[in-house]
Amino acid sequence: MDEVKIEHAPPAAVEYLALRQMAGLSPMSREGAEIGLPRSLFAVCLREEDVLIGMGRVIGDGGCFFQVVDIAVHPDLQGKGYGKLIMIEIMDYLRKAVPPRGLVSLLADVPADRLYAQFGFEYTSPKSEGMWWRQGD
């Protein structure tokens, strides 16, 4: 992990889309990535020799609601603590940026839910359930 560079800026759309695909996350459009990435409240990228190997972002309104998204690590490097490093960077940002009563949410894929629990994230059910709607192709 010594040669890993931490950047606090969103990745380029092309590398973002590639890492999402490699890491098994749902595909997004290039158009959406080009619009959304610059609007991130906070982003962290992990790089080895300028190659994106991990990333995570925070999106939201910057006051009441924040959402942790795009936590991804290259599959060849998973299980080596990079996901935890990304979350440490994100939590440092959240502790400074989220005002009192601000709500931070995320959608956790299993088994990544165990990682998020280490940082104090809790399940919302049975009081509430996560829901989503997605625009078609």
Explained architecture:
The protein has about 140 residues and is an alpha+beta fold. It has one domain (about 5-115): Gcn5-related N-acetyltransferase (GNAT) (Aminopeptidase, 3-Layer(aba) Sandwich). It has four helices and five strands. It has helices spanning about 15-20, 30-35, 80-95, 115, and strands spanning about 5, 40-50, 50-60, 65-75, 105. It has a five-stranded mixed beta sheet. The longest helix is centred in the middle third of the chain and has 16 residues, at about 80-95.
Strand order of the largest sheet: 1-2-3-4-5
Round the Cα radius of gyration to an integer and report it.
15 Å
Gross geometry:
globular
Structural class: alpha+beta
Q: Spell out the helices and strands N to C.
A: EHHEEEHEH
CATH class bucket: Alpha Beta
| Largest beta-sheet characterization | 5 strands, mixed
Give the fraction of residues assigned to helices: 25-40%
Give the name of the CATH architecture. Answer: 3-Layer(aba) Sandwich
Domains (count):
1
**How many DSSP E strands?**
5
Pfam family, one: Acetyltransf_1
Domain N-acetyltransferase: 4-137
Protein name: N-acetyltransferase
Short description:
Residues 4-137 form the N-acetyltransferase domain. The chain has helices at residues 13-22, 30-36, 82-97, 113-117; strands at residues 4-7, 42-48, 51-60, 65-73, 103-106.
Secondary structure layout plus pairing:
Blueprint: E1 4-7, H1 13-22, H2 30-36, E2 42-48, E3 51-60, E4 65-73, H3 82-97, E5 103-106, H4 113-117
Parallel strand pairs: 4-5
Antiparallel strand pairs: 1-2, 2-3, 3-4
